[in-house]
Amino acid sequence: EMQLAESGGGLVQPGGSLRLSCAASGFTFSSYAMTWVRQAPGKGLECVSLISGNDGSTYSADSVKGRFTISRDNSRDTLYLQMNSLKAEDTAIYYCAKLASGWPRDAFDIWGLGTMVTVSS
Amino acid sequence: EIVLTQSPATLSLSAGERATLSCRASQSVSNYLSWYQQKPGQAPRLLIYHASNRATGIPARFSGSGSGTDFILTISSLEPEDFAVYYCQQRSNWPLTFGGGTKVEIK
């Protein structure tokens, strides 16, 4: 069974940093594009960062560009999101999701349960 | 950035009724349109990809249609477990964007 498990969320002060991890199992991790999607409390979905499965190209939303970095370790079947200079508006549940192929514009077919990030003093 | 507008924001229906949800894109996304279902406290789940293809394990009562800028998600006969929030998503251009969601609630 394909599964994703996020970790690393928590409470952090404005300006602080966190690194989220997403452990994948049940599929050939290196073959698929992966993404981080966030959902602020009571709000909709925002795709913040994506990394392709073939050439490792990365994409970031303007709201996080220069502050968040997506990466992957295919030897560990793990996706990461390094979040720096955190702001209150980054408070959200962060989901990792698998794309249906290595192509960076495919559908998000498997989702993790999410990890909560709270930015507050 | 491509903006997706979903309507209505809330749909109040009874079990057994037909639900019709709309998603309109600010520019053509061809058929690079997906639909997701999210229940309270859960992660989203892929329902429809490429505008009209059901994802693995999705019941036949869910169907999608449209291309270009106008898309429809239809639930032919609502089951109790279908009351949830539904999001459309375009995959044509980065940033990949979601609509604001349609909540299907019990009337």
Account of the 3D structure:
The complex is a heterodimer of chains A (121) and B (107). With 121 residues, chain A is mainly beta. Chain A has no helices and 11 strands. The radius of gyration of chain A is 13 Å and the shape is globular. In chain A, a hairpin with a 4-residue loop joins strand 7 (68-73) and strand 8. The model of chain A has no long low-confidence stretch (mean pLDDT 96). In chain A, strands 2, 4, 5, 6, 9, 10 and 11 form a 7-stranded mixed beta sheet that branches. A 4-stranded antiparallel beta sheet of chain A has the order 1-3-8-7, with no helix packed on it. Chain A has strands spanning 3-7, 10-12, 18-25, 34-39, 45-51, 58-60, 68-73, 78-83, 92-99, 108-111, 115-119. Chain B has 107 residues and is mainly β. Chain B is built from no helices and 11 strands. Chain B has strands at 4-7, 10-13, 19-25, 33-38, 45-49, 53-54, 62-67, 70-75, 85-90, 97-98, 102-106. In chain B, the strands form 2 sheets. In chain B, strands 2, 4, 5, 6, 9, 10 and 11 form a 7-stranded mixed beta sheet that branches. Chain B has a 4-stranded antiparallel beta sheet with strand order 1-3-8-7, with no helix packed on it. In chain B, strand 4 (33-38) and strand 5 form a beta hairpin. Chain B is globular and about 35 Å long. The model of chain B has no long low-confidence stretch (mean pLDDT 97).
- Please state the structural category of chain B: mainly beta
Compute the number of helices of chain A.
0
Q: Which chain pair has the greatest contact?
A: A-B, 22 and 23 residues
- Basic shape of chain A: globular
User: Would you count the extended β strands of chain B for me?
Assistant: 11
Mean pLDDT figure of chain B: 97
Query: Any low-confidence stretches of chain B, pLDDT <50, length ≥5?
Result: none
Assembly state: heterodimer
DSSP strand tally of chain A: 11
Mass-distribution shape of chain B: globular
Rg value of chain B? 13 Å
Mean of pLDDT of chain A: 96
Quickly give the structural class of chain A: mainly beta
* Largest sheet report of chain B: 7 strands, mixed
Number of helices of chain B: 0
